[in-house]
Every structure is written in structure tokens, then in C-alpha cells.
Design goal:
Blueprint lengths: L17 H16 L2 E8 L5 E2 L8 E2 L5 H6 L9 E10 L6 H15 L6 E5 L5 H11 L6 E4 L12 H12 L10 E4 L2 E4 L4 E2 L8 E2 L7 E4 L2 E4 L26 E5 L7 H8 L4 E6 L7 H12 L3 E6 L10 H6 L2 E2 L5 H13 L5 H10 L1
Parallel strand pairs: 1-4, 1-5, 5-6, 6-7, 13-14, 14-15, 15-16
Antiparallel strand pairs: 2-3, 7-8, 8-11, 9-10, 11-12
Helix pairs in contact: 4-9
């Protein structure tokens, strides 16, 4: 019961004001109407800590707990009912496929519950786009799944994590976010997991979708979508992939083409048992002639080869060479996202070359 002693209608000792009591009950009723959001923490800069006596400098990722992150954003209680879990507390440069699998399984379990309306995952920025894309292909729910992070550690001057976390929860609790696929919320903007990539080493505006643009933005805790992915292949409810078939993802590596490339990397990957290799090519995914021959030889040994790009963004078109050499082309996917998709294709046992290319063209 609230403190009604100052209320002008509070007239009798040990009695209580009916109007004030009604207001108290209204607050409880409003609280019960807030969306129920599960926040899963995995560490990263958003949970990082730096020397408070230094203006800038090195810091340690994955130090603060999810309880500490939530405590820094008291406004969260006004936008959602939160249940929090510490899934991991690592620097995302050390992300593992095993942890990806655990996140997918747990996310699907939570989203199947009527007690959860959406999920927010806090993550490091280094591999966030890979995790988001993996989840986008394997999470099966219309309910929102939103990843967020920070470019500045939690103890830094003007840390960006608290606002990113608040806005991620707002987006996860919005009906407009349903059936949009896995989303990434950073710096007031909403991105598709398919489109977004980290473009800068330090800026709070590092995450961009240069080819397609943001899906929308958040302003004063209101969600605005300018573009919709409902009903597209970017909607996780339509993905053909299933976590039940992902017992062990095959080894897929990334090579890069550059001036006077050697074939050392591709030959080593093949010798080490790689089942697939994505090559980040120059320009339109072009390959140095030495690297190209190594890739052709790898295909002859049963290794899947995908041509992607090393530039910031664009589209790798399918050429005559690809048909002749049985190369796949990644379309708009960068090399690290193409690697994720190729791992899932191989894990599903999809061997038909045309079907593999169709998947790259549509996912």
C-alpha cells in the first residue's frame, strides 16, 4: 500500500484514501500489461569495465553481470517486465559455435512459452552480426528477437550501452517487431540481421546496413519501421533450417584474395579437413589466378567453394566461371555471413549445386 498521509482526502487515522488506493491498483494493472521480455547476456563491451581514472584506454570485456547492466537502466521497469539470465560473459571475439547452438535452443524454448513476449540478447560487437544471422536462420517464432551491444564499456564516459539496452527492450516488446526476423538495435536504429555489419572500429554509429539501410528507428521509446520484412525469407518463421539437424556443424573456413595471393591458405584448409571455404574476393568477388586454381582443385576434392567479397558491401554476381568451376556466389552476404549459411547448407546434407545456389540467392 502507498503512503497516503499527505492526501487531502486522507481524513481518518488507520483509514486509507479510496481514490489513492485506486491509483495504486491502476499502476499495478498497467505493470501487468507491459510486455514480458527475456534478456540473455553473453558479455562483450556492453558489460566491459575500464579504469575510471582514464578518459580513454584499454578495457576488459564481459566483466559486469546482467544484474549490473539492468541496474544502470532503471527506466526498463516502465517499458517491460524483465527476466534476466547470464548465458555467458565473454569477449565476442571468442564466440563459439557451441554457444550459438545453446542460444538458439534456449531462445526457441523461451519463445514457445506464453510467459515470454520477446527476447533481447546482449552481445559483444566483434561477432554480433554473425550470431544474429545464425539466429535469424534457426530461431522459429514470430516473436521478436533483438540483439544489442555497445561500442564503449559500461564504465566509460558517455557509455552507449544503457540506451542501447533500453531501446532493444522497447523494440522487443513492440508488436510492430513481430515477424521481422532477428533484429539488431544500435544507436537509435533498427537493422535486419541479414543486412547489418560493423563498419567502424570505435564509433557508436559503427553498425550500418549500407546496401539496404536501417529498417527503422526508435525515438522517445517509440518504435518506427520504415521497411518491413514480414513474409520474406528474412523472417525466421520461414527459414528451411532446423536446429535439430545441427548436431555438429561442418568445418567451413574463410580465405582472402589480394595482390600476389598464394594458394597456401586454401591448400591448408583442405588438408585440415574443411568441407567448405568462403573466399573474400576483390571487387565483384574476383580471385587471384593462383587462388582461383587452388579453389578449382578444392572443388575436385569435394570442398564447397563460395565467392564473396572483401569490400564494404555490394553483390557478387554469378559468372560463367562459377558454372564451369562449380563455385557458389554469396550475393549480398559478406564472407562471415556466407560462412554461416554454408555451414548450415552442408549440415542439412544439401548436395545439389543448383539448390545450394538458390539458398544463397534467397537467404
Amino acid at each position: 500500500m502507498g503512503d497516503y498521509s499527505q492526501c487531502i482526502q486522507y481524513k481518518y487515522k488507520n483509514d486509507f484514501c479510496i481514490k489513492c488506493l485506486q491509483k495504486d491498483e491502476d499502476k499495478k494493472s498497467l505493470q501487468q500489461q507491459l510486455p514480458r521480455i527475456a534478456v540473455l547476456a553473453t558479455g562483450g563491451t556492453i558489460a566491459g569495465e575500464t579504469d575510471p581514472t582514464e578518459l580513454t584506454g584499454p578495457y576488459r570485456s564481459g566483466v559486469l553481470s546482467i544484474e549490473q547492466l539492468l541496474a544502470a537502466v532503471p527506466m526498463l521497469s516502465k517499458v517491460a517486465r524483465i527476466r534476466a539470465e547470464q548465458v555467458a560473459n565473454i569477449d565476442s571475439k571468442d564466440m563459439t559455435i557451441d554457444l550459438w547452438g545453446k542460444l538458439v535452443i534456449h531462445a526457441n524454448e523461451l519463445l514457445a512459452s506464453p510467459e515470454v513476449d520477446g527476447i533481447v540478447i546482449t552481445h559483444g560487437t566483434d561477432t554480433l552480426e554473425e550470431t544474429a544471422y545464425f539466429l535469424n536462420l534457426l530461431v522459429k517464432s514470430k516473436k521478436p528477437v533483438v540483439l544489442t551491444a555497445a561500442m564503449r564499456p559500461a564504465t566509460a564516459v558517455s557509455a552507449d550501452g544503457p540506451l542501447n539496452l533500453l531501446e532493444a527492450v522497447v523494440v522487443a516488446g513492440s508488436k510492430a517487431s513481430e515477424e521481422q526476423g532477428v533484429l539488431v538495435v544500435m544507436n537509435d536504429e533498427i537493422f535486419s540481421a541479414h543486412d547489418v555489419t560493423k563498419m567502424n572500429t570505435y564509433s557508436v554509429g559503427s553498425f550500418q546496413a549500407s546496401e539496404f539501410g536501417a529498417l527503422g528507428w526508435i525515438h522517445e521509446n517509440q518504435v518506427h519501421f520504415e521497411r518491413s520484412l514480414v513474409g520474406t525469407h528474412f523472417n525466421t518463421t520461414h527459414s528451411r533450417f532446423s536446429i535439430e539437424k545441427m548436431c555438429k556443424l561442418p568445418q567451413v573456413e574463410i580465405a582472402m584474395s589480394y595482390a600476389e595471393s598464394s594458394r597456401t591458405s586454401i591448400d591448408a584448409f583442405v588438408a585440415n579437413g574443411a568441407k567448405g571455404i568462403v573466399i573474400a574476393g576483390t571487387g565483384d568477388g574476383t580471385l587471384h589466378k593462383v587462388l582461383q586454381q587452388a579453389a578449382i582443385d578444392a572443388v575436385r576434392q569435394g570442398v564447397a567453394i563460395v565467392r564473396s567479397y572483401r569490400v564494404s558491401y555490394g553483390h557478387v554476381s554469378h559468372e560463367k566461371l562459377d558454372d564451369e568451376a562449380d563455385f557458389l556466389t554469396a550475393g549480398t552476404l559478406n564472407a562471415w555471413k556466407a560462412r554461416v549459411l554454408l555451414m548450415l547448407i552442408l549440415a542439412e546434407g544439401i548436395n545439389d549445386h543448383a539448390e545450394r545456389q538458390y539458398i544463397f540467392d534467397h537467404y
